[in-house]
Design a protein that fits this description.
Strand 8 (about 130) and strand 9 form a beta hairpin. Helix 4 (about 145-155) runs antiparallel to helix 5 and helix 6 (about 180-190) packs antiparallel against helix 7. It is built from nine helices and nine strands. About 45% of the residues lie in helices and about 20% in strands. It is globular and about 50 Å long. It has a five-stranded mixed sheet with strand order 1-2-5-4-3. It is an alpha+beta fold. The chain has helices spanning about 20-30, 45-50, 65-80, 145-155, 165-175, 180-190, 195-205, 210-225, 225-235, and strands at about 35-40, 55-60, 80-85, 95-100, 105-115, 115-120, 120-125, 130, 140.
Length: about 240
């Protein structure tokens, strides 16, 4: 699809709002035919619409080169943007952060591409990521990818998610097949060791203890400074 084929909504009169920017983004992604999903808990995009300051709008996608070009061209027509950060190293999280000027603020959109990772830790490879697209403008990461995004990702960053987000993670885990859960658990054991089994227990309904996030974060740090991860970390 050529850039001219995407008909993103025009910017409203006056300064662009976050809600209008997000609507344009969803339209561009859908019309380009890209596979994508919002990240974070349900309602996070709407919360971002009303936010101020540095909070990101996070989404995952697996675009072709043409789809990426089309979406970025459509966004450029809606509003100029600046690239805040970009990483294409396949050994770590591949992402693109764009900053847009909106009414009274800057709005940052962060695109995670391909594998779902936190630093050197691989959570779910792109080929295993599933998306619940029953709501065309609000697709969500599903199955083990949803569980990883909602629970494992914040744990690796040193935080235990709130109860509502944890419940959503458990629902995603429950909807995945036994084979996919076992494959994910085996992968996490290889990445973060025995804490993967504790995470599986939490996803099964156990209450996380007060030190789980600290221990999981420690696993990430040790993996980051291990000889196998130093080159990617330095880059």
């Amino acid at each position: 699809m050529s850039p001219s084929a995407i008909t993103s909504p025009p910017a409203p009169t006056g300064r662009l709002t976050r809600a209008a920017l997000r609507a344009a983004l969803a339209t561009a992604l859908t019309e380009a035919g890209a596979i994508w999903a919002w990240q974070g808990p349900r309602g996070a995009p709407a919360v971002w619409d009303e936010s101020r300051g540095p909070s990101d709008l996070d989404l995952w996608w697996a675009p072709t080169a043409d789809q990426k070009r089309d979406v970025l061209a459509a966004l450029r027509r809606v509003s100029p943007y600046a690239v805040v950060a970009e990483s294409a190293d396949t050994r770590r999280l591949q992402h693109l952060s764009l900053a847009f000027e909106v009414a009274g603020d800057l709005a940052v959109i962060d695109f995670t591409e391909g594998d779902l990772r936190v630093g050197a830790v691989l959570l779910v490879p792109a080929a295993d990521i599933t998306v619940d697209d029953s709501e065309s403008t609000a697709p969500r990461l599903a199955g083990t990818a949803g569980a990883a995004d909602l629970l494992v990702r914040p744990l690796l960053r040193g935080k235990v998610p709130p109860a509502a987000r944890l419940d959503q993670a458990r629902a995603c885990w429950a909807q995945a097949s036994q084979a996919r859960r076992e494959a994910a658990l085996d992968r996490w054991r290889g990445q973060i060791g025995e804490e993967a089994d504790t995470i599986a227990e939490v996803l099964g309904g156990d209450t996380p203890d007060d030190y789980l996030a600290r221990r999981v974060r420690g696993r990430l740090l040790r993996r980051t400074i291990a000889p196998s991860g130093l080159r990617a970390a330095w880059a």
